[in-house]
Amino acid sequence: MTTAKAPVAPAPAVKKIPANSNKKLEFKANDHVVYPTHGVGKIMRIEEQEVAGLKLELFVITFDKDKMTLRVPVTKAKSVGMRKLSSPDTVATALNTLKGRARVKRTMWSRRAQEYEAKINSGDLVSIAEVVRDLHRASGQPEQSYSERQLYEAALARMAREVAAVEKIDETAAVKRVEGALLKKAA
After folding, report:
1. What value, to the nearest 5°, has the Cα angle with vertex 60 and ends 37 and 156?
2. Residue among 98, 73, 118 at smallest CA distance from 176
3. Is the four-CA dihedral 153, 27, 84, 54 of positive or negative sign?
4. Is 105 helix (H, G, I), strand (E, B) or coil?
5. Are 80 and 109 in contact (CB under 8 A)?
6. What is the pLDDT of residues 98-123, one digit of tens each?
7. pLDDT tens-digit profile of 130-140?
8. SS3 of 75, please?
9. SS3 of 48, please?
10. What's this model's pTM, rounded to 2 decimal places?
11. How far apart are CA 43 and CA 34, in angstroms?
């Protein structure tokens, strides 16, 4: 004597929750963030994409100045050095750094250029301020080489963008603020 079993309905598909989902996301849409090698960007949205068969949650960050969009996996944001904007105190420290004396090592330019490039790409505002201070030339000083000027302008732009975002001013005003701090050391 066999009894007929009723057909069993398949279990509803359960959306797999990433292991790190219990952690609150440090960044959210419309936040301004600093990505070390690109500077200040804005998180437009957080999206899910399938890459090589894996579902990834990604921050979609736009850098208007560079006309670039970057997608950073949520799980990698900290390890690549992505951070929130500096605090007003850090901005004040960076602007104070500009007033100090330039510390130029007496090593070959190629070595110093590498060190300056590393500081700029570190994403640390005070380190970037050191590069701006060290490469700044007052009107009475000798001309900069092309590569010195390129590094100076890159550091100045990176610093000005963050100062502008923190102080909620436009980038031109931020450049004037940074250059004003540089000129105060000369006076």
Report:
1. 30
2. 98
3. negative
4. coil
5. no
6. 988 888 888 899 999 999 999 999 98
7. 999 999 987 77
8. helix
9. strand
10. 0.79
11. 10
